Amino acid sequence: MLRLGLRILVLSPRQCFPPQTGAKLREYYLIRSLSERADVTHVSFDDPGGRLSAGDLPFCSAVISLPRPRGYTAGKVLRGLFGRWPLPIVNYSANAMQAVLAGLLAKERFDLIHLDSIHMAVYEPQLRRATGAPVVYDWHNIESEMMFRYGRHTPSFLRARYAALTAKRLSNLEDQILRTSLGHLVCSEREREELQRRVPEARITVVENGVDAKYFDGAAGGNSKHHRIVFVGAMSYHANAEAAIYFARQVWPEIHRQFPGWTLSIVGSNPTVEVLALHGRDNVEVTGTVADVRPYYGDAAAAVVPLRVGGGTRLKILEAMAAGVPVISTALGAEGLAVSPGKDILIANREEEWRTHLESLAGDAGRWDALSRAGRELVHSRYDWETLARALYDTYAEWLASPRKLAS
Questions:
Q1: Which domains, ranges and CATH numbers included, belong to the chain?
Q2: Taking the CA of residue 168 as centre, how many other CA atoms within 13 Å lie in the half-sphere pointing to its CB?
Q3: Cα gap 65→104, rounded to integer Å
Q4: Which tens digit of pLDDT belongs to each residue from 92-132?
């Protein structure tokens, strides 16, 4: 068992409060759960224009945050192309963070170092030199896989070449840390199998993404109120922005002609210029950041997840299910979730399939109710954060009790 007083250092590339995006939600709830049994120190970069304080993470014993360093500078691009670390990692390299870690490690002892994504791998050599504590990684995605996919879809030749090179460098780094770290958390069995195939000796455990089921319970309204289609996600993330533009331009016009009273709500922070341009055409609204997404689920006929690029698992699918809203997604959008198409989710990979599914939900209240109920049952039984937290405790307890010989 985890012994009383275990000290964990969490090092993160992001400001996890407020927990409004997938990575932030996962980090926030898992750290909160760890803090129930361990002494957690949290060190991170702030969001642009934001600032994390101790009051945001009251369950942590110490909270230290620094301004995020500038990314994609000329010097970092050159280092990313020709140096030790790929550019997505170099972007998070900062002398100020190295200084903070040096000062912290000079006066504090930690039993475990939790790096929240491989973006913080640039600091692992310093951590290894300063402390004998084992290092674990939480993989929000397989970053090389996401970069490979991006390269296949971008129309720009130069970006495709950059993506191919960077994906290869990321893959090499991933294989290295799989061999040299104590253990790794991934979000899905598919990701575990893929990484285990690459490095069979790696210690990898699935701790799935989850949702605060109680928070969303009952958000969906009655059948008579359904007049909204909702797509929720951070609209600064390229995969979400691409999906919103594709759905609004290629799929929504025909749906709008069939259901002129419906609204397509694109709900998410920091929409790109291209996403903002969708607002006002064919009953499309782009909200930007909202204080509470539940009212948008409250009158939703369906939540759509039209992702065609990207990786990881979709917390927004789980939120919609917890709210009681039927979900229609591409197969890629639902990748990694233990869903049953036709029972608790509907899958649409072609434009006509979106229309067919929405017609069936609009015309059959029993179908809508069955999908709503099955989605809620799935979330409560498998994806509630309280359930997932127990798996995290058990994982770290096992790893700390059974250290293994690591590659150098």
A1: 7-210+385-401 (3.40.50.2000), 213-383 (3.40.50.2000)
A2: 7
A3: 13
A4: 999 999 999 999 999 999 999 999 999 999 999 999 999 88
